[in-house]
Amino acid sequence: MQLDAYDAFLCDLDGCLISGSTVLPGAQALLDYAGERLIILSNNSTDTPHTLSARLKQLGLKAPPQRIVLAGTTALDHLGQTAELRIRLYGSGALRAYAKDLGLLLDDVTPTHILLTRDESFGYGELREIVRSLSQGAQLYVANTDESHPGADHVPVPETGSLLAAILSILPDLTYTVIGKPEAALYHAALARLGVGVRRVLTIGDNPKTDAAGAARLGLDCALIGPNHGEWSDLNQLMAAHAVIGRPA
């Protein structure tokens, strides 16, 4: 694997570039090296590209919103392609604002579709509501099935998949649609940003169940990093192994 052989890079966020509010080794080096060839591709379902870009800027990492593709907003984009939906969104204020900007109708009473994202206020009451709506025929969309993502000090942060698990404990035969990795929809959204002429794309991640499996489904190469599953401990080691640290985009 030679990094110079690739036209573009799709890099995961949590566990690769950052962990909580900590910038991980090699993050800046990869951004400097890849430049506009890099898309941050994340199952994040709390931020929008604009809020994440602002958060990364506070950490010293420059990543314009147009180079960020996230599961939560991609799911809303997908739902926005169908007219006359009534959506019950379980998610952050940023996602609710994004949905309204898209012109989506948010309906907490009689939804036709439910979108489940990482909702930090999700509790027993929300679980009862969602089970009732699903039992009445609403369709469930899920931003991602990750049970957790790496947080500060290596403490796992509960993710959308943990909320989904609670629903499935009650409705085990439920059919639902997943947008995030390892499903193809998120990758297609990212590849569309790269435009024509991009032939070889390297995905970079830390999770074999999402990053590696998703890349394999689309026939993309994947570099796994991290202390648990990766060939390289972090981005810094990956970049050093290919002697590209400090080189301009």
The whole-angstrom Rg is 18 Å
Q: Under the CATH scheme, which class of the largest domain?
A: Alpha Beta
Instruction: Please estimate the helix content.
Output: 25-40%
SSE series: EEEHEHEHEHEEHEEEHEHEHEH
N→C terminal distance: 18 Å
Strand content: 15-25%
Indicate the CATH architecture of the largest domain.
Answer: 3-Layer(aba) Sandwich
Oligomer classification: single chain
Average pLDDT metric? 92
Number of strands: 14
Unreliable residue runs: none
Number of helices: 9
Topology:
Elements (H helix, E strand, L loop, with lengths): L7 E4 L6 E2 L2 E2 L3 H8 L3 E5 L6 H10 L9 E3 H9 L6 E5 L2 H9 L3 E2 L6 E4 L7 H12 L3 E4 L5 E2 L7 E2 L1 H9 L7 E3 L5 H11 L6 E5 L2 H10 L3 E4 L10 H7 L8
Parallel strand pairs: 1-4, 1-13, 4-5, 6-7, 6-8, 8-9, 9-12, 13-14
Antiparallel strand pairs: 2-3, 10-11
